[in-house]
Design goal:
It is found in: Cytoplasm. It comes from Paenibacillus taichungensis. This is Response regulator. This protein is α/β, with parallel strands linked by helices and 253 residues long. It has two domains: 121 residues, Response regulator (Rossmann fold, 3-Layer(aba) Sandwich), CATH 3.40.50; 116 residues, Orthogonal Bundle (Arc Repressor Mutant, subunit A). Helices cover 52% and strands 13% of the residues. The strands form two sheets. It has a five-stranded parallel sheet with strand order 2-1-3-6-7, sandwiched between helices. Strands 4-5 form a two-stranded antiparallel sheet. It starts with a strand and ends with a helix.
Amino acid sequence: MYKLLIVDDEPLILEGIKRTLDWEMLGFRQIETSETYGDALTKAVEFWPDLAIFDVCIGKERGYNAIHKLNELGLPTTYIMMSGYGEFEYALEAIHCGVKDYLLKPVERAKLQALIERVIVENLNGTLEGRNPNCRDIDPILEVRYDSLSKLTNRILLMVKAEYDQNINLKVLASRFRMNGTYLGQMFLKETKMKFSEYLMVYRMLCARERIQATDEKISTIALSVGYANLNYFYTHFQAYFSKSPSDMRRKE
């Protein structure tokens, strides 16, 4: 149904992105890859991808320059930029050329999955219903099927999955949806029986627990990775939710 182009000058990265997700289950039937700037432009023009994932550096060239050129040609493509660099200037250039989002390498599977789901719903006018027969069709926090929720609520949940590590709140969402923040919060509460801030907190806690149990990363690093710049605030939420400290949970595991 959908066509995907992945562009990176490192073959191992290309192969890794191809294997990270079950693209066919998500509806991507044709996947092309490219290792050079010129070849990427040629392939994009030839088969008009629905989604293109560009590395910011393609040899000596820049991925956002390729996107600028393809935009000028009028390709109906949604773009994602990825890079091993954290400098804001690269993210700024990506924003200027209209990319959907910007991912740092190594790309985390969960973030990529959530972002692709957002693209399918928001940009490709698709649906996630029936794409995964496993428990992914049930929200782990609300414990209800995604297809039982409204499209707007699903979009909010997808944004939480993709941006839980950032400064996301109802004001940010309301601005994107061009809606009143108070109304959006009331609607989310009415449908989910949870405040948005509570849902976001629980999602962050579950992500933090997973990393605490699966890695040896410092607690401060994990806290920052799930959106908590204030470590004490993170400890307070974690203790209140799990009735144990992050260190205690790691020791018992």
